[in-house]
Amino acid sequence: MAISITTVTGIEWYVNKGEVAGEEALNPTPDPNSATGFVNPTEFQWEDATARLIEGPEQLVDFYIQGRAYIDTRTIITDDVTGGVVSDSVARTYPAYVVTEMTLNSDHPADWTDPNNPVKPKQQCGPVLYKQNDLPEGGIAMNGGGYTRVGLSPTNSRTSGFVLTKANLPDFSPNIETFLVDLETGRGYIWVDSRPGAVEYNGSEWTNTGLAKNPDDINTDALDSIDDLPEDAENGTWQLVNNGVYGTVYEKRDDGWFNIGPLQAGGTFPFNMPQPTQVYIGGYIYSLVFDRSDFYYVPRLSGGYQSTYEGEISITETGWFPDQPHDAERNIYPMDSVTKVKPDGRENVTITYTCILRTSVASGACTVIQDVYQPTYDWGDLIQQLLDKTYFAHGIYH
After folding, report:
1. How many CB atoms are closer than 10 A to CB 390?
2. DSSP state, 307?
3. Within a domain: residue 342?
4. Residue 284 has pLDDT above 90, yes or no
5. Is 179 inside any structural domain?
6. Residues 304-311: contacts with CB within 8 Å, 24+ apart?
7. How many CB atoms lie within 10 A of CB 235?
């Protein structure tokens, strides 16, 4: 008997909430050297998503891609006399490997990364992407069969907010993805359910995610008004302001002070509004995906109450129309007015993602497409809903 052994290495892909797409789905290519009998698929499609204009993006979780290195060993045994094949088999094994690169990027030009806001997750074309580009020197060692993941997972789709100190972390979580920043230390905490390493405060379990902001750049002594924000503050400074409704965190940038979210805790300030009020989650930003649209609004309490007011604001800058704070009984609204509503005429936009995984055993790439659809709005009703959340529509001017 004669034995012939050949080996082939590759990357095995798994796309959660996705399926094989393209020609590979219809006519998989035979491959006698593969343990599956076919060429491993590299083209996939995620489930459809929807872009929204209000209430933030539709929350997307568990849209991720996994890859792992494999070795296919083909063993052919032939008869020495007849030359006929006695057996032909392929076995797949998963060796230990080192990840040297894993990236996920889209073909869409919009990139909502905000380097000035360390608690705002990476958003590329709308969705928050968990990326493993910045690997430690020497890479990450993986056990045999272990997957390396990139994309959206539950712990990377977060509701962001601020607490004065870690003692103000609430004894409940609005959802399992809640992410709060301790203004006293600048450390971020994420809600967990009995996860190893959890830290318990006030009867709830929180995991410390590390330093989100240099504490030296945070000033937790609340000012009485945004008019008191100092013009000579250094870029990156965080300042708490008590505006009479709830505490708000502002960050100094080149063009002035930027509102980066409400304080999510009690203490010495009157916090009367529903929480949470500012959301950064995995989802598609309408104005970035449907970029032929045009939507503008006037910020709340503009004019004399807002020293940085420079006119109407495009939701391309803010992501969506604000809906908080809103308490109609006390005449509190999230906007002064809505000035322009022009939707994009396309029914959907297709986004293509490319994932690259390089390891010490093998390297490979796959593509994943996702169709993002228009929201099913009655545009007339939507305009009325937006106007109902404005001061000027209720005859309140300032």
Report:
1. 20
2. T
3. no
4. no
5. yes
6. 304/398, 305/226, 305/398, 306/226, 307/226, 307/227, 307/229, 307/256, 308/226, 308/255, 308/256, 308/257
7. 10
Residue-wise pLDDT for 193-233, tens only, equals 554 455 554 445 777 766 677 777 777 778 888 888 888 88
Edge-first strand listing for the sheet containing 159-163: 159-163, 178-182, 187-191, 204-211, 199-201
Burial 313-352 (b: 16+ CB within 10 A, else e): bebbeebbbbbbbbeeeeebbbbbbbbebebbeeebbebe
Would you say how long the chain is, in residues?
A: 398
Number of domains in the chain: 1
Residue 260 lies in a domain: yes
| Residue 26 covered by a domain | no
Instruction: Report how far residue 112's alpha carbon sits from residue 104's, in angstroms, rounded to the nearest whole number.
Output: 15
pTM above 0.90, yes or no: no
CB-based contact 163:169 (threshold 8 Å): yes
Token pair, residue 357, equals 């995984």
Mean per-residue pLDDT over the chain, rounded: 76
- Residue range of the domain that includes 237: 159-279
Phi and psi for 41 in degrees, rounded to 5?
-65, 145
